[in-house]
Design a protein that fits this description.
about 100 residues; alpha+beta
Length: about 100
């Protein structure tokens, strides 16, 4: 992130993506909202951008009445114990399918 002199003087590396071999560089302009603590602001921006990598999902036939923020109990799957953050219900000629995205 740029500093007040216009140079890219602040950097942050995420420990969540490095083990997966994900490398990308983003260059941000100075965010005046975080002038008090630029390091925290940069960390928050990166973590917000990475939130999609933390999402797990499960798809099944039908619908069992789940709702947003419900905690999933589904042993043996990555979604077990996570909360529903988004739902996609599809109905077509093959029937109904529910996809639960959990964080």
């Amino acid at each position: 992130m740029k500093n007040v002199d216009g140079e890219y003087g602040y950097s942050y590396s995420s420990g969540k993506t490095i083990p997966h071999g994900i490398t990308r560089e983003k260059y941000y302009g100075l965010d005046k909202q975080w002038l008090n603590n630029v390091a925290v602001g940069l960390k928050d921006r990166i973590e917000f951008a990475e939130r999609e990598y933390l999402v797990e999902h499960i798809t099944y036939e039908g619908y069992c009445g789940e709702d947003i923020t419900d905690k999933i109990v589904c042993n043996g799957y990555g979604v077990n114990g996570k909360r529903v953050s988004r739902m996609e219900i599809t109905v077509n000629s093959k029937g109904m399918q529910t996809k639960l995205l959990c964080e």
